[in-house]
Amino acid sequence: MLMFPCEVVAADRALQFQRGWFAHPIFKNGDYPDAMKWQVGNKSELQGLPETRLPSFTEEEKNLIKGTADMFCINHYTTKIVSHLTARLTPPSYKYDMDVSEEEEADSPTTAISNQRAVAWGLRRLLNWIKEEYGDPEIYVTENGVATDIKPQLMTLTESSTPKRSAHYYYHVMKDNGFPLPDDEKILYGQFPKTFNWSTASAAFQIEGSWRAHGKGLSIWDKFAHTPSRVDNSDNGDIACDSYNKIDMDVEVLKKLKVTLYHWDLPLALQKLGGWENETIVQRFRDYADVLFSRFGSRVKFWITLNEPYIVANLGYGYGTFAPGIVGKQYIAAHNLIKAHAEAWHLYNDKYRATQGGLISITINSDWVEPRNLYKQEDVDAAERYLQFFIGWFAHPIFNGDYPELMKTIIRKRSLAAGLPESRLPEFTPDKIKRINGTHDYFGFNHYTTVLSYPVDLGKQQDYEGDRGTGTTHDRTWIESGSSWLKITPFGFRKILKFIKDEYGNPPVYVTENGISERGEVTLNDIHRTHYYENYINQALKATLLDGVDLRGYTAWSLMDNFEWAAGYSERFGLFYVNRSNPTLPRIPKKSASRYSSIITCNGFPDPWTP
Ligand code: BGC
């Protein structure tokens, strides 16, 4: 949030008018706050009055008033956002004396009282303000609560003294004397299975550069990045990290080679035929896979057909914020992506597996989601829709057969209600369902963050957003990263790994990406990233040891700072810093690189107290 000094002063002035009016005389010097005396004095003079409308205390009164409190008692309900305003002079009023305008804090939940949002973070700031302003007094919160207008559920609330759920909650807070760190946030000591695979990822377009070397044709990302206003700072992948020329150096830090067939850089020539919208891409993808399997299959034993089809479909062909920048075609793109994956898997299975003996599957990405209000059924339902429209869209056809029922039902219903002859979600024939179902050797999974869900009704809007009907937000206490969408939420990692186990038949899972970005000032002491890896990997350990998730491998994203798609080079995910102001693009390890390497060496978090 941008803060302007005059707004900070306005906020302090508002506090002085409210709290300071009474607290200042008692806790400070027996007199009203200077800001109040100044404002009311000036306004009174401007209003042509002979003296200020704020009465004054005599010296004797001041001495009498000052220090007449053993503790600071505060009642608090809400927080407002204020800005500076030159308020009118007439009629003379306390409100206009303040020279501020007030707004609601729009991100916080509303209550039954209009204009009184429940702004949890405001209480913390207020307590800090009192501490600073009045010299760290003993504080007692003597009132704090919220008004709701939900009708009591009559069946359960028959007695007038029946406790609400909040009563149980408050009872627990008192019993625990606060919020002891839940067990699931405490570090678990232990190690991953001996055969666990550790790795670090990057992607061709994001690091290679040499965009026209040896007659290389254009890809959809070359085109996108060379289109004005598509990528931040007009960045592009022409040179990227120059890994095309520095291959030996980069491979030096990587042990085993794993290969992804498709990480978003579709040849532009294929896009000219419709790209993922054109069903012929399925056969072409199979042909392409054939070339790679036959050329590299003797050395590559771990294949990923597609990286994050969700992003390809939804950002590339739905919202249009990623290449090729097409809007509203995500369902058909997804349909072809799923079929293309299945054909590549079958090809490997039928023609190469016996001789090459590798593993092949797809990498699906998903956030974890929590209902914004755990006790509100609409938020719980919104969370379910969020997951089924995200991970389920791709995982369900491949691991369980066909799209999730929830998706099929919602999209059909909304399409027919809008007068369309059929569902906007394409259908798989029964044969196709069978052919796609089971095309996996493992569950490749990319994960970064968690969101909070709530329902949104977009009326008749005929698209993915309208179908999903879910809005998302974040908890303000979650630590931020260099990407607005990515907050540090380690607990969600364990939960979604467990979800995968329960929902998709306990498959072997390889985490093929997980990491965090930073932006702005460069520091090699990247404590956020170190914290992120320690906590996320520890949650992965809990998923393995406590929840029985069959986790086989973990991959950090990313090896080095690179071309972060539409964000260009402004968001940096690397364990290694790439100094872009030096033409040789040197790679310099950040602190997180050594922490990650020690976690790998220890194969987890061995108990320091065990000899
Ligand atoms: C992608 C990467 C990307 C990373 C961070 C993943 O979704 O596969 O290419 O850099 O997220 O946004």
Automatic annotation (TrEMBL):
Gene3D superfamilies with a match to the protein in the record: Glycosidases
Active site per UniProt: 143, 513
Protein name in the entry: Lactase-phlorizin hydrolase
Record-level GO BP terms: carbohydrate metabolic process
GO MF annotation terms: lactase activity
Similarity comment text for this entry: Belongs to the glycosyl hydrolase 1 family.
Family annotation (InterPro entries): GH, GH_1_N_CS, Glyco_hydro_1, Glyco_hydro_1_AS
